[in-house]
Specification:
CATH class of the largest domain: Alpha Beta
Helix content: 25-40%
CATH architecture of the largest domain: 3-Layer(aba) Sandwich
Shape: globular
Structural class: alpha/beta
Strand content: 15-25%
CATH topology of the largest domain: Rossmann fold
Distance between the termini: 62 Å
Number of domains: 2
Radius of gyration: 22 Å
Length: 377
């Protein structure tokens, strides 16, 4: 961005012909052998800290705060993208069909002061009337949401935030990256390790705290891989229910079609991609499945704050990006093709429905029910 605050134009994007992109840490961590294996030492220390913290919470020796409003946590075991934002949007829609007003509570990682981060902006575009609070102190943020009269709080990325009591714990596992890292480029099984050697925040055994595990992108792996993952999760957390979900493209926003183009709009087109998300490979597979011929995919770190030099040389071909990236790229003078996805339950939707129906009533919900009964009783 220019120092005077104005949006850069095409000419300024083209001046720098040599594009040097920030490196993604997960690309280095996905490798096996070499100096990266020294990270197993701090990973062992981290594992000890995680185990101690979990022990203290399990014994009730660390405080847990309960809100008057029911809380649904949507989280994962690893750092990076598993589809939490589409899951939160799906839950908000399901709750709305039940006559309940949901609000979203998150930490707001990467947000500018007083603003929403990229996931929050994406949710605001999807559901304009969805109340959102982003606060490092989730308990305080939850109380602010309660003040706005919500019936249910959706705690985004909350599985490890055990200080706030939740009524329903949903954990997402991406079938294409179940342990956070992609398979090594040299071949072999993906690295399965805790931070900082891998991307796991907790061991798989932590899934025993979950009310249900939602397997995302189940259509992007073979049946054999999916079954092996299911066996792995069952060994780690016996009896925890599993739900299967897919990411489905519901529209493509083009520069000249604000309301969206048909899903065949990319068929046979030579395109460039730009993304700064947790699982860029999944995004590229989606574009290829839509018929796009990918010439270049410019991949930046998750939550990256785009600068003009990151986009130098792009724009000669249709530039395709994700809804999460689009909210940060729209200030640049580049025509964007935005692939918007929704979560679709493939198996286990009835389980999630039953869990939602079993949520306790919020104070406002109970008050409305009492008024209704008084009027019609």
């Amino acid at each position: 961005m220019r120092r005077d605050g104005a949006s850069p134009d095409r000419a300024s994007l083209d001046r720098d012909s040599k594009v040097k992109l920030p490196q993604r840490a997960d690309r280095h961590l996905a490798r096996r052998g070499g100096l990266v294996e020294l990270l197993r030492v701090p990973a062992a220390v981290f594992a000890g800290g995680v185990a101690l913290r979990s022990f203290l919470y399990d014994r009730g020796w660390l405080p847990v705060e309960r809100l008057a409003t029911p809380v649904i946590s949507v989280g994962n075991l690893s750092s990076g993208g598993t589809g939490k934002t589409p899951m939160v949007a799906w839950l908000a829609g399901q709750l709305r069909r039940r006559g309940l007003r949901a609000g979203v509570l998150s930490r707001g990682y990467g947000a500018a002061p007083g603003g929403l981060n990229d996931e929050g902006l994406e949710l605001a575009r999807r559901l304009a009337d969805l109340p959102q609070v982003q606060d490092r102190d989730r308990a305080a943020g939850g109380r602010r949401l309660e003040g706005r009269g919500v019936d249910v709080i959706l705690l985004d990325d909350g599985f490890q935030h055990r200080r706030l009591q939740r009524d329903l714990d949903l954990v997402l596992v991406d079938c294409t990256r179940p342990f956070g890292l992609a398979p090594p480029t040299a071949g072999g099984a993906p690295v399965r390790a805790l931070l900082p050697r891998g991307l796991l925040r907790e061991p798989l055994s932590a899934l025993r705290r979950a009310d249900a595990v939602v397997l995302t992108r189940v259509d992007a792996v073979s049946e054999e891989e999916r079954e092996e993952l299911a066996r792995c999760l069952e060994r780690a957390s016996p009896g925890t229910p599993r739900v299967e979900a897919t990411h489905v493209v519901h529209r493509i926003r083009t520069p000249d079609a604000r309301d969206g183009a048909g899903l065949g709009a990319l068929q046979g087109r030579a395109v460039d991609l730009v993304s700064a998300i947790g699982n860029p490979e999944a995004f590229e597979r989606t574009v290829r499945a839509l018929g796009g011929v990918v010439v270049e995919h410019r991949i930046l770190p998750d939550h990256h704050s785009y600068e003009a030099r990151d986009l130098a040389g792009l724009g000669a071909r249709p530039l395709v990006t994700t809804a999460k990236d689009a909210v940060k790229l729209e200030r640049f003078a580049l025509p964007l093709w935005v692939v918007e996805v929704e979560l679709e339950m493939r198996a286990g939707a009835e389980l999630l429905s039953a869990l939602l129906d079993a949520l306790p009533a919020a104070p406002g919900q109970r008050q409305r029910a009492a008024i209704h009964e008084g009027l019609h009783g």
